Amino acid sequence: xxxxxxxxxxxxxxxxxxxxxxxxxxxxxxxxxxxxxxxxxxxxxxxxxxxxxxxxxxxxxxxxxxxxxxxxxxxxxxxxxxxxxxxxxxxxxxxxxxxxxxxxxxxxxxxxxxxxxxxxxxxxxxxxxxxxxxxxxxxxxxxxxxxxxxxxxxxxxxxxxxxxxxxxxxxxxxxxxxxxxxxxxxxxxxxxxxxxxxxxxxxxxxxxxxxxxxxxxxxxxxxxxxxxxxxxxxxxxxxxxxxxxxxxxxxxxxxxxxxxxxxxxxxxxxxxxxxxxxxxxxxxxxxxxxxxxxxxxxxxxxxxxxxxxxxxxxxxxxxxxxxxxxxxxxxxxxxxxxxxxxxxxxxxxxxxxxxxxxxxxxxxxxxxxxxxxxxxxxxxxxxxxxxxxxxxxxxxxxxxxxxxxxxxxxxxxxxxxxxxxxxxxxxxxxxxxxxxxxxxxxxxxxxxxxxxxxxxxxxxxxxxxxxxxxxxxxxxxxxxxxxxxxxxxxxxxxxxxxxxxxxxxxxxxxxxxxxxxxxxxxxxxxxxxxxxxxxxxxxxxxxxxxxxxxxxxxxxxxxxxxxxxxxxxxxxxxxxxxxxxxxxxxxxxxxxxxxxxxxxxxxxxxxxxxxxxxxxxxxxxxxxxxxxxxxxxxxxxxx
Length: 639
Fold this sequence. Notes:
By secondary structure, this protein is an alpha+beta fold. The chain contains twelve helices and 33 strands. Strands 14, 15, 19, 20, 21, 22, 23, 24, 25 and 26 form a ten-stranded mixed sheet that branches. The longest helix is centred in the middle third of the chain and has 25 residues.
């Protein structure tokens, strides 16, 4: 090691632009693996792979100013990765610290604090070291170990950062390297196999673990326990009486061993319904679903699912339907499913209020996902199925134990019939999902379920809980189970795309009026679709107009968070501009059968007795609709 090539740290920073501490911290977090790899490559090989790993992490984590006296801004270097000056600063700090780690303790009269072992991070009872690479990686590691630290730094900056030599010279000079040109020449002695630097051999973030000396550790543990007991006695003597140490009062410390929290995270305490419990239960909901799947006995998988539910990491893809809490369970949840689904391990849990779905790749936990959906009050048809997984535009469902048959049906082709969907262990075969389709809407596939009570239709709207489809007068809805109800939904199926990912519980289609079109144009249908949500609020109402022979219904009006077209207030009034085959424009409006009269004002003044109105109009006309009910009340039109 040629330690004389590194100069002492300057006592003051050069003047220039500044970088906020927050910006530097954000850069450190974003590029942490790259910075640790850089430190690992520059640190002295004589430390051993395990000590180099811990020291690389320690130096990187100490790269920001510490202490209350730290200034609010720090000197900026030239822009680093992707033009980020915060990254340039942090990289400079890490590089300087790694170079200084190889210096002797005394350097020109300065007594340096030993870098080893680092205070943090520290791992007890384990030896951590990177995974071994191939012959090429081992050969490169041997060649780098023979270089002095500045030359290793030059090689790493060229390979990892892909910097030109001029920029490498500037960075090494700023880091205190005296003989920069010599460092570059020595780095030239190693072949430029920079691609190998990205291998696991040089990755201190992907580690293997082995135990330390067990007998020696046992002796040290006994001594540490005795010291800890003495410290606890001393701490009790100086503890403040009364309300505790701080404003949290009686709250448990962070990560305290709370019995309720521990029980909720214990795979052994997961609730499992007795098989067949649904046959005698007074309610047919998720609480009587048995645990299914081929991994219900995989304790490690269940523990990971529960831990991620309680403390999802930064890399976990988290989603929740609107109005759904994403916090951990209050007690041990119920296990509904644990098994292999396509290329993932999937766990479905239920805590009485929510369905939680945990999924991880079969070859690791990187890319794990956690999804939540409300399920409070789900009963009967609403508890018939949950989404198990989506892949390649398809969706699989986990069905209730009382489901006897499943089929796939295109709502836009009611006369085509349903295609049988094989069911195995409560899991359906994959079927096309309308939730992920893009482009023109030419079909809308739905899940048709058969059980002891009849036939039901559910649709995937991009969430864990499929939405139930019904038809009929609000408050008297019925299942979509016959030819008439299927044909009623056909023109309006594509409008379901307007309520994707909104936490929809059910969607009802109600044909509230029919109207003869002017000029012998036939009879048009007025249909109101109302999407109810699991959270109660946020219902979306669409008034749609369907002309004879038309494939789709046209949205005439829409509203949100209104009682119209619902059980509380089934009244609805809407209007649309329509062009006849002869080229004449009309304002058409319709209300429910209990509408006594309709009038239009604003751009057009017209009125009609009864629940429909037709008046000549001009293209682009805007009018305000008002209606009078048979009981004398007035209603306004949807907008």
